[in-house]
Amino acid sequence: xxxxxxxxxxxxxxxxxxxxxxxxxxxxxxxxxxxxxxxxxxxxxxxxxxxxxxxxxxxxxxxxxxxxxxxxxxxxxxxxxxxxxxxxxxxxxxxxxxxxxxxxxxxxxxxxxxxxxxxxxxxxxxxxxxxxxxxxxxxxxxxxxxxxxxxxxxxxxxxxxxxxxxxxxxxxxxxxxxxxxxxxxxxxxxxxxxxxxxxxxxxxxxxxxxxxxxxxxxxxxxxxxxxxxxxxxxxxxxxxxxxxxxxxxxxxxxxxxxxxxxxxxxxxxxxxxxxxxxxxxxxxxxxxxxxxxxxxxxxxxxxxxxxxxxxxxxxxxxxxxxxxxxxxxxxxxxxxxxxxxxxxxxxxxxxxxxxxxxxxxxxxxxxxxxxxxxxxxxxxxxxxxxxxxxxxxxxxxxxxxxxxxxxxxxxxxxxxxxxxxxxxxxxxxxxxxxxxxxxxxxxxxxxxxxxxxxxxxxxxxxxxxxxxxxxxxxxxxxxxxxxxxxxxxxxxxxxxxxxxxxxxxxxxxxxxxxxxxxxxxxxxxxxxxxxxxxxxxxxxxxxxxxxxxxxxxxxxxxxxxxxxxxxxxxxxxxxxxxxxxxxxxxxxxxxxxxxxxxxxxxxxxxxxxxxxxxxxxxxxxxxxxxxxxxxxxxxxxxxxxxxxxxxxxxxxxxxxxxxxxxxxxxxxxxxxxxxxxxxxxxxxxxxxxxxxxxxxxxxxxxxxxxxxxxxxxxxxxxxxxxxxxxxxxxxxxxxxxxxxxxxxxxxxxxxxxxxxxxxxxxxxxxxxxxxxxxxxxxxxxxxxxxxxxxxxxxxxxxxxxxxxxxxxxxxxxxxxxxxxxxxxxxxxxxxxxxxxxxxxxxxxxxxxxxxxxxxxxxxxxxxxxxxxxxxxxxxxx
Length: 877
What we know:
It is built from 27 helices and 30 strands. By secondary structure, the protein is α+β, with helices and mostly antiparallel strands. Among the domains are: about 5-30 and about 330-495, Up-down Bundle (Multidrug efflux transporter AcrB transmembrane fold); about 45-130, 2-Layer Sandwich (Alpha-Beta Plaits), CATH 3.30.70.1430; about 555-670, Multidrug efflux transporter AcrB pore domain (Alpha-Beta Plaits). The radius of gyration is 35 Å and the shape is elongated.
C-alpha cells in the first residue's frame, strides 16, 4: 500500500502525524530566538595587549614580535598581521575557512599563556577574542544621577548597579565608558624630592612597605583561642600624609613634605554624553546563545527597577541605541511580506483553479510545510533572522507547486467521471514522479550552498537548509494531505456565465486563452527562426553579464541599507590633549543638536573605544566619535547619506583642522572600511611611496571616499639617548632610570587604599606642573652612587622628534594598510577600477599587495557561489 493509499483509506494516521508536526512546530516557534543575521564568525582571531606609556616602536619590539613568533605556528593559520600602536598591540590571526575557530581560540590562548612571562612586567594580560557581528552591543545607554556628583555616582555604579545589570538573563558583558573613578593621588613635587635626596622609587617602596596586612597566627589558652591579624592598611589620608619616608636624628621626613595627598579621581581617559549631557556610558552585549530581543527587553525592565530603587539619588537610564529594534522591525517586515505572499498565492490559486475550495486545499500546503519546518530549525539551533525568514518568503511559491500539479491532475480525473477517492488516488499516482522531480530540482539547486566554505556559507547556510526542508515537507504534503483533502472535498467546477461570481473567472480565462495563443505563435516563430532566436538569447545573456562589468549593477558583500543612523568620527592632531578634544567635540555636538527638526539622538564617545564590529578595544586622546540617530521617518525625506554629508560639511567648514569621517550605520554596525588593501615590503621607503601612489589613484576613482594610509600618521615624541659611560661612572642603572621615568610620567598604582572593604588605587606620580614639557624631563634628578642628585640632561641626550603613530607587520614583514570608504557606488566597482589602474601602472615587484576586508570576502564569496551554481546546474541535468 502506497503512502497516498494510506492517506486516503486510513486518514486518521495522517491527521495524527500533521497534528504532531504542526503542534511541535508552534511550540518550536516560541522557543526560537531573534537575530538580525545568522551568526557568521569569520575565521579571524584578535590578540589585544595593552602596554601603558609605550611608543609604537617599543610595542612592536617588546610585545608584537614575541606574540607573532609564538602564534605563527598555529595550525591552519594563513596570515599573521600585527598593529603596534601607542600603548597597545593588536595581532590579527587569519585561518583557513574550514578551521574550527573555537578550537583555534583555545590553541591561541595556550600559546599566549606560555609567553606571558617573557613580556614586559607592565604589560596587561593579552586578550584573545573572535570577531563576531552578533557580539556588537545590543544596547548603548547613558546613565545619570542628578543628586550625586560624578565621582560618587561612579562608586555607586561599580559597587551596586553594574552587578545587578550583569545578573540580567542574556547579558554577557557591560562595558563602561566615561565616569570619574575615585583614586587617592600622591602628587610628588620634583624640587622638594630633589632637595631631600629622594627618588620616585624611594617613595613607592615606602608606601608599599607600610600598606600591608598579615595573618600572623593564633594565641591559645585552655579555654579559648583567637586569631592575630596585623592590620597595617592605610585607614585615612592622614595615615598617608604622616608616612615617614626617612628619619635623621630627631627630624623626620614625611610624605606630606614632598607630595600633596588628595582624595581625588583617576585621570579621565574617556567621556560619554547623551544629547550634550555628561553621563556614564554603558555598552551592553548579549551572551553568545542569548536572544537579543529578550535580553534587551529584560534589561530595560531592570532599568525601571533600578530607577525606582535609587530614585533618592535621581538615577535615570536613557537608551541611546537599541539594535534589537531594527531586528524586530526587519523581522516584522519580512513576516508582513510573508502574509502578503500567502494572500497573493491564494488569489492566483482562485483564478486558475476556479474554486475557493480547491484553492484552500492547495493553500493548506503552506502552513503544513512552514510550521513543520520550525521543528527542524529548533533542533538545528537556528534563529528567526533575515535569512531564515527570507527563505520562508521565497519558498511559498515553491510549496504550492507540487500540490498544484497533483490537484490539477486529480481535477482532470474528476472530469473523466471518476469518484473523488478514485480520482485522488489515480491522479496522484500518475503524476507522482513529476512532483518528485519538481521537488528534487529545487533541493539540488539550494543544497550545494551548504557544502561551500567561507563567510558566505555561514550567512546562507540556514537559508539553504530552511528552503530544502520546507520543500521536502511540501512533497510529503502533496503525497498525503493534498490527495486526502481532494478525496473528501474536491469538486469539479463548470464556469457558468449566469453566476456573477464566475464572471471575473470567465474574463480571466479568456485573457489566458489569448495569451496562450500568442505564446504558441511566438514559440512556433522561434522554432522556425532558430538562428535569430539563438542570437537574441545570446545577446541578452551577454548584456546581463555586462551590467556588472560596466558598473550598472554593483558588487558588494552586504548592502547597508538606510537605518536613519550615522556616525561622525573626529580625528584631531596627534598633539591634541584630552581636554581640548573634549571641548571641541562638545561644540560639534551642540552644532548637530541645533538641527532639531532632523536629529533625535546625539551619543558621543570622547577618546573611548569604538563599538562596531572590527573596532579596537581601546581609544585615543585625539579621537572621538558621535553617533547620530535621525528622527523616525526623516530618512524617507532626506536619505541618511545625503544628510550625513551635510553635517560633515558643516563640521569641516567650521573646524578645518579636524579630520572628519562620516559612516552610514547599516544593518551590521561595522568600523571596517569596505576597501582594505595590504601592502608589504622589506623596503619601508618604497612601501610608503607605493602606498601614497595608490591613495592618490583612489582619490581619482568615482565613489571612493576618505582613503587613508594606516602608518602615515606622525607623532611627536621625546627621544632619549643614554650615555652609558657616564651612567656607569655615576652608578645609575638603566632600569632605575626607566622605572623613575615611568613612575613619574605614567604613575604607579600598585598600592590600594581600603575603605569599608572597597579598594581604590593610590596613584603616585609627578605633580602635573612638573611633567608638562621636554625641559621637565631634562631637569629630572637621579641619585648617583655617592648620594648626589644628578640632572637627567647630564647623562642623556633628550630631543624632540617625529615618530610613527603606528607600525604594522604582515607575516613578519613591514606592512601598511590603505583603507577607503565608498559612497554612491558599490565597493566592487571601486576595487575593479583600482585593479584596472594597476594593470596599466603595476606596483613595484618588491611590493606585495593583498585585498582585505569586504573585497576579500566578496571575491571569496563570488567564487564559492559560482562553484555552488555549477554544482546545482550539473545536479539539475
